[in-house]
Amino acid sequence: QNGTAADEATKAAIADLVAKLEALNPEANIATSTGMTGDWKLVYTSNQGSSAGKLGPFVGDVFQNVRYENGKYENVVRLGGGIVEAVLGADWDVLEPCKWQVNFRTLKFSLFGATLKEQELKAVGVWRMTYLDDSMRVLWASGGKNVKTENVYILAK
């Protein structure tokens, strides 16, 4: 469930493993690496909200589709094998070698492939990226209203 059901002991163990993995990061300039390109599946997050795929009492699959060459990114949440889908469209600005400001531009909800609602957004977040290789990446994200803490996101290609 993307970490939404993890108990405190599991969260602590994952945090320890993430710190060990980050120490082995092979990519010094994640923010400008074409290795970011691809379709990534969320494996775990400390976030307990919609970014974890949580829509009401349900938890869906979360994918991040990054197209570095186009400067575009989509965060996709799918419930029921795609019966319900929410797509958050964004682009980014490079702030530091391993940091993006993510500019959220659109939000679209679909049911059975038919768009129910689409709207423009003007929200931003900051991704501090701490690990990237050919099959895994780790980032810490902050943003949103009154959000002062970072949440970790572990994704696999």
Structure description:
The chain has 157 residues and is mostly beta strands. It has a single domain (8-156), classed as Calycin beta-barrel core domain (Lipocalin, Beta Barrel), CATH 2.40.128.20. It is 10% helix and 55% strand. The protein contains 1 helix and 10 strands. The chain has one helix at residues 8-22; strands at residues 38-45, 54-55, 58-59, 61-67, 72-79, 84-96, 99-111, 114-132, 136-143, 151-156. The protein has an 8-stranded antiparallel β-barrel. A two-stranded antiparallel ribbon has the order 2-3. β6 and β7 (99-111) form a beta hairpin. It is globular and about 45 Å long. The protein starts with 7 loop residues before the first helix and ends with a strand. The model has no long low-confidence stretch (mean pLDDT 93). InterPro entries: PAP (IPR039633), PAP/fibrillin_dom (IPR006843). Keywords: Plastid. This is Plastid lipid-associated protein/fibrillin conserved domain-containing protein.
**Can you tell me the CATH architecture?**
Beta Barrel
What fraction, in percent, of the residue positions are helical?
Answer: under 10%
Strand/helix succession = HEEEEEEEEEE
CATH superfamily: Calycin beta-barrel core domain
Write down the overall mean pLDDT.
93
The DSSP helix count reads: 1
What is the spatial order of strands in the main beta sheet?
1-4-5-6-7-8-9-10
Q: Which radius of gyration do the C-alpha atoms yield?
A: 15 Å
- Characterize the main sheet: 8 strands, antiparallel, barrel
> Which term fits the overall shape?
globular
Taking pLDDT < 50 over at least 5 consecutive residues as the criterion, the unreliable ranges are: none
Distance between the termini: 17 Å
Task: List how many beta strands DSSP finds.
Answer: 10
Number of domains: 1
CATH fold assignment: Lipocalin
User: Structural class given helices, strands, pairing?
Assistant: mainly beta
Top-tier CATH class: Mainly Beta
Organism: Eutreptiella gymnastica
Protein name: Plastid lipid-associated protein/fibrillin conserved domain-containing protein
Domain Plastid lipid-associated protein/fibrillin conserved: 2-107
Keywords: Plastid
